[in-house]
Specification:
The complex is a heterodimer.
Chain A: H1 2-36, E1 39-43, E2 46-48, E3 51-67, E4 76-79, E5 86-87, E6 92-96, H2 98-125, H3 134-227, H4 232-276, H5 283-368, E7 372-374, E8 379-384, E9 398-412, H6 413-416, E10 424-429, E11 432-446, E12 452-459, E13 469-477, E14 481-486, E15 491-493, E16 496-507, E17 510-519, E18 521-525, E19 529-533, E20 542-546, E21 557-558
Parallel strand pairs in A: 1-21
Antiparallel strand pairs in A: 1-20, 2-14, 3-9, 3-13, 4-6, 5-8, 6-7, 8-9, 9-12, 10-11, 10-13, 11-12, 14-19, 15-16, 16-17, 18-19
Helix pairs in contact in A: 2-5, 3-4, 3-5
Chain B: H1 2-27, H2 31-38, H3 61-69, H4 71-104, H5 110-122, H6 125-138, H7 146-153, H8 157-166, H9 171-179, H10 184-195, H11 197-212, H12 216-221, H13 242-262, H14 264-274
Helix pairs in contact in B: 1-13, 3-13, 4-7, 4-8, 4-11, 8-11, 8-14, 11-14
Classes of the chains: A alpha+beta, B mainly alpha.
Chain lengths: ~550, ~280
């Protein structure tokens, strides 16, 4: 039990010691931390205005300018004026080389002549020419085609009649010739047959006689041999010869009889074919007949073709007659348009002629003045970009400034927002204020996406030289804002502008000063102050500077001077 | 055999100490070593945690920095003290009589009320968070220490622990006191509290641990960082002060360890008695 009490007492002591140690370290760490706490400067939001000083650089310009035109492709002999020179009307500005002026004058005269000829040619071309209309021409063609068609139709009808007659005659002739030919042919074939029959009979008789004679000679030779009547060899030879003769005669006459018989049979067949009607025998006649028919058909076909051609020509003429009206209308419109175009061209040429005549007149005046170009009015040369010996291009600038002066300069867009028409500008030359001239702002123009704005101001003095560069300054005051703070107090991050305020926070260890974030909206600012809004009060303590980087939630220590 | 069993059990028990040893070892490491080994915890690197129970080059720099150069640590420490001490005192004043009433008296609806206590006790904070917030807001207590103190004082968990403990006091003892002429308050003070001491202490100890380590309640009810307790110091640390994390954890652990040692007997008795029926 005693041991238990001892442990409890020790435990209680340990807890007390622990708490005491923690208390000591708390005090120590606070003391050390106090040294490290960022020191901050503070400010309170105030009502007021923002003042702006706007400065920039500009150039003096004349308010009105007169441009003197320069002839192109001329050579400058001398330049008498220069930028900034005050001139009076009639004073020589520069002089052209006379040679080029003369050449230009002659070239211009030739050009004028060419244009006048062109005008005459154009006038001639626009005169109307007499001509027959397409409709009239088509009517003539149609009449002619109709006449031809009629003639061809008549001719065709006649050809048809001729064809019928010829066809009938050919048919009649053919039938008559066919009958005659058949009768004659039958008789001829019969005669041929009979002749062949007789030849055959004659051949049979001749054969018999020849064979019998040969056989008799053979029998005689054989008998002579048997009888020994003479030379045996000769007799034997005679027997052989006569034997061959018998054989040869028999063969010869067998062939002749066979041929005669064959001829007889052929003729007989021909005759019987004619007789029985299986063969006509009038084929040539038929071919001749058909050829005749074809010939007269061709003659008729030629006429038919002529007729079709004439009909086609007639229809074409009809169609052409129908189209001729439309084409006449189109041609009439086109002709009218061409005439109007011609009139316009004539006017254009006439205008060119007028212009050229004027230029010629000016050039002649310039030549008369020995090439000298003179100032048309009193003023100051503000720009002159030419020199002696130069060949002009026509784009050379000669500007003569007239009357009052103005200042044209650039300022930043941000500054431009604080300037308005009527504000006064102070002018400076080489850093020193200019006595006398003062600028009154005429306009402030924002140019595109540039960060610059163009300011134009009227000058109250005229003793300045156009083209001179001067500095200018202006002061402007904003409308009153409810909350204005030092510009250093304004902070910005991804969430926008904000302030860090000092707020007292009660903690267990006392009151601490903490940096608290307050989001605000920036309304306007200048180089030292900013106008804001965003739930502020005039009692808020705004951190405007610190000796260390601070952020929301940091402890801070306010320095009061 | 008995010896080997003892050694193996001791070995297993030592495993419970590993996290604490690791924590203590890390509290003696330099910032560079901390970031090398535990950089991933502070989103400083992708290298996995390399646990070590011995620092390569032991240093007291983390403790020095914590104790001398971290005033916000002490602000939070005393905030914790301010938020926990009133809770414990309040629970002693409110919960002890309440628990005595549930255990010593029979009254109509006693069981029903105690059932309500049960139900409220088992509800997690997330369930009651919105209603707690609305109530505290309507009483304008949000962003004050009272936002944590008052709900803590009226917590039902200590009542539950104490009731079970008071119920172990014999009824005959209180009856005898009444017969001898003792009043009810006298009986509570001279019989209830002395005999239920272990239960009261265990309940208060458990409440201390709960309040000391609370994270959700302060985050929910305290907007101002100047009011935050020590339990929120660790989650808000940056890699630049990573070395102080483990030192802070070690220091933060000290009161819990000391109270555990001091109240170990009461804690054991109270918990045991709350679970045993007469």
């Amino acid at each position: 039990m005693k041991e238990k009490l001892t442990i409890q007492m020790t435990g209680k002591k340990m807890i007390l010691v622990f708490l005491t140690v923690m208390l000591v370290f708390t005090i120590l760490s606070r003391a050390l931390d106090s040294i490290k706490v960022p020191k901050v400067n503070i400010a309170h939001p105030q009502k007021g205005n923002l003042n702006y000083e706007i400065s920039g650089t500009g150039k003096i310009e004349a308010k009105e300018m007169l441009s003197v035109s320069v002839l192109p492709d001329m050579k400058i002999r001398s330049v008498d004026a220069f930028e900034g020179k005050k001139i009076v009307s009639g004073e020589t500005l520069f002089t052209f080389q006379m040679t080029e002026l003369q050449e230009a004058y002659e070239a211009m005269e030739r050009e004028l002549e060419k244009l006048e000829i062109s005008l005459e040619a154009e006038k001639l071309e626009s005169l109307p020419l007499p001509k027959m209309s397409l409709q009239e021409l088509a009517a003539q063609s149609l009449q002619k085609a109709e006449e031809i068609l009629k003639k061809v139709q008549d001719k065709y009808e006649k050809a048809q009649e001729t064809h019928s007659d010829k066809l009938a005659k050919i048919q009649a002739d053919y039938e008559a010739d066919q009958l005659k030919t058949k009768t004659r042919l039958l008789q001829d074939r019969y005669d041929a047959y009979m002749s062949a029959e007789r030849s055959y009979t004659t051949a049979l008789i001749d054969q018999e006689e020849a064979v019998l004679a040969a056989r008799a000679a053979y029998k005689d030779a054989k008998r002579a041999l048997e009888e020994g009547d003479g030379d045996e060899e000769a007799l034997e030879s005679e027997v052989k010869r006569t034997y061959k003769l018998v054989i040869g005669t028999e063969d010869k006459w067998d062939l002749a009889v066979a041929e005669a018989n064959q001829n007889r049979l052929n003729k007989k067949n021909d005759y019987e074919a004619m007789k029985n009607g299986t063969e006509d025998g009038t084929k040539d006649l038929l071919e001749e007949y058909e050829a005749s028919i074809e010939r007269i058909d061709q003659e008729l076909a030629v006429e038919a073709e002529n007729l079709a051609s004439a009909e086609s020509t007639y229809h074409d003429a009809l169609q052409e007659s129908a189209n001729a009206g439309i084409n006449d209308s189109y041609n009439k419109t086109a002709g009218e348009r061409e005439r109007q175009l011609s009139v316009l061209r004539q006017k254009s040429i006439a205008l060119s002629i007028g212009k050229l005549q004027m230029e010629l007149h000016k050039l002649s005046e310039l030549i008369a003045a020995n090439g000298q170009v003179k100032a048309p009015i009193d003023g100051m040369v503000t720009k002159l970009s030419m020199e002696a010996g130069q060949i002009t291009t026509g784009s050379e600038a000669i500007l003569i400034g007239l009357g009052d002066l103005k200042l044209k300069g650039t300022i930043s867009k941000e500054s431009a927002g604080y300037l308005s028409s009527g504000d006064e500008l102070s002018l400076f030359k080489d850093g020193r204020p200019m006595s006398g001239p003062v600028g009154i702002v005429e306009s402030v123009i924002f140019v595109g996406d540039d960060e610059q704005a163009v300011i134009t101001a009227n000058l109250t003095a005229t003793n300045l030289s156009p083209g001179a560069a001067v500095d200018f300054k202006a002061t402007s005051s904003s409308p009153a804002y409810d909350y204005i703070i030092p510009i250093n107090a304004l902070r910005k991050d991804n969430d926008g502008e904000y302030l860090l305020l000092v707020e007292d926070r009660k903690t267990i260890l006392g009151i601490e000063q903490i940096a608290v974030r307050r989001n605000v909206t920036l309304l306007a600012k200048n180089s030292s102050k900013a106008a804001i809004e965003g739930g502020l009060s005039y009692d808020d303590i705004v951190i405007s500077g610190s000796n260390k980087s601070i952020q929301e939630g940091d402890r801070v220590r306010v320095i009061t001077d | 055999m008995e010896r080997w069993r003892r050694i193996s059990l001791i070995t297993l028990c030592l495993l419970i100490w590993v996290p604490m040893i690791v924590l203590l070892a890390a509290s003696f490491m330099s910032l560079a070593e901390i970031l090398d080994r535990y950089g991933v915890l502070f989103s400083h690197s992708d290298v996995p945690v390399q646990v070590s129970i011995l620092p390569t080059y032991p240093t007291l720099r983390a403790y020095f920095e914590l104790l001398f150069d971290s005033p916000e640590f002490f602000t939070m420490f005393w905030n914790s003290f301010l938020q926990v001490a009133p809770v414990l005192l309040g629970q002693l004043i409110v919960a002890a009589p309440g628990a005595w009433a549930f255990s010593a008296y029979e009254f109509k609806g006693r069981k029903l009320f105690f059932l309500f206590y049960h139900i409220v006790m088992i509800l997690p904070f997330q369930v009651t968070m919105v209603s707690d917030y609305l109530v505290l807001d309507s009483f304008h207590l949000l962003n004050t220490h009272l936002a944590l103190v008052l709900p803590g004082i009226f917590s039902v968990f200590p009542v539950f622990i104490m009731v079970k403990n008071f119920e172990n006091i014999p009824k005959a003892l209180t009856e005898a006191a009444r017969i001898d002429g003792a009043g009810e308050f006298y009986i509570f003070l001279h019989i209830g509290i002395p005999l239920g001491k272990s239960g009261i202490f265990s309940a208060l100890l458990l409440s201390f641990f709960e309040q000391w380590n609370a994270i959700e309640q302060p985050i929910t009810f305290l907007k101002d960082k100047q009011l935050w307790p020590l339990s929120l110091y660790l989650p808000n640390i940056t890699p630049a002060k990573a070395a102080t994390v483990f030192a802070a954890a070690a220091v933060m652990m000290v009161p819990c360890v000391m109270l555990s040692v001091l109240g170990e007997e009461y804690l054991t008795e109270g918990i045991v008695s709350s679970g045993i029926k007469e």
